[in-house]
Amino acid sequence: MPATTGLSVHSVYDPLIYSMPGTFTITFVAVYLLLGDDEERKARGVEKLRRGRAAESFDASETSPESVVSACNSYSLFGEGPFVVVKNLDAWNAAQKAVIVAYLDDPAPEADLALLGKKLGARERLMAAANRTGEVHTFEQPTGKALVRWLVGHAKGVGLDLPEEVAQGLISRCSGDKQRLANETEKLALYVADRPATGEDVDVLCSPDMQSNIFTFVDSLAAGDQGGALRLLEDLISTGEPPLRVTYMIRRQFRLVARARALFARGASQGEAARELKVPPFVASKLEEQARTLSDEDLERALALVLDLERGLKGGSDLGDELQVELAVLKLSG
User: HEC profile for 167-180?
Assistant: First the structure.
């Protein structure tokens, strides 16, 4: 239960706890811990907590917990308590999280602190402190049919008739990223007006993201589709990414597929694979598909070819970068 105080302090729910006739105390929520991989729901949660106030945002990978505590203890010229948001909480180690735990022992009475991360151990001191002085919420992103249902429902909410098969195509283009799916759905709603959305509408408005293109590219390689693989390679390079970075991402994908293949061979579930590989659930689902398509020999050969390509791009070949990549694609899909 959150701690209570006699001070008149705000919280997102503003709950009044009546103690006796004519008197009341207000629940003081010092911290909101938002966990899980559903970034879209976490973003909506932050907006509800913010309630129109200016937010001071920090990234735990780039700032110290002492800076966050200092922001919590500051006050605006209008006497309003600060609203402080910390993203990527997982980047802090135990000692850094301990600074926040110490702050929560005596928090600023009008400050709202929102901590956003993927996961926090049940026995971690910060988890115990958040349960004691605030609220803990976990948002897991839906996958598969559940994600399709969510997207169709979200589209209906913004006035868009989105058939399930079109929703599936949009999910593939956005690699299941709910935040981007929400944005793209709103664009589609404005574009199609009063008719159902089609796959052609998605093609026109919603460009595939890098991850989606990488997945499709690897699918084409596995199928031996040289023409499709070369077209996708052109799409990847046309995004402005240097050929060497594209090569790194392709290598990473093949390594993820190889590791996923080993995990699924041992009987791991998609959820277990996602945690072990540190990827979202929808990525683990796609990796399982590719792991069934590619054999160990396919993966070893692909990784060897990609490593040769990297050496060439780093100065080991006199050929132009794009030509080297194209030749490697022809070998990979041969």
Answer: HHHHHHHCCCCHHH
Alpha-carbon Rg of the chain, whole angstroms? 24
**Cα gap 269→34, rounded to integer Å:** 25
- Residues 119 and 174 both lie in one domain: no
In whole angstroms, give the CA distance from residue 38 to residue 45. 11
H/E stretch holding 23: strand 23-27
CATH number of the domain where residue 95 is located = 3.40.50.300
Strand, helix or coil for residue 322: helix
Domain harbouring 156, CATH code: 1.10.8.60
Pairing state between β 23-27 and 4-5:
antiparallel
Task: Name the residue with tokens 């899980």.
Answer: 36
Residues 191 and 301 in one domain: no
Strand partners, 5: 26
* Prediction pTM value: 0.61
> What confidence tens digit (pLDDT) does each residue in 264-286 have?
999 998 888 888 888 777 778 88
Residue whose structure tokens are 């800076």: 67
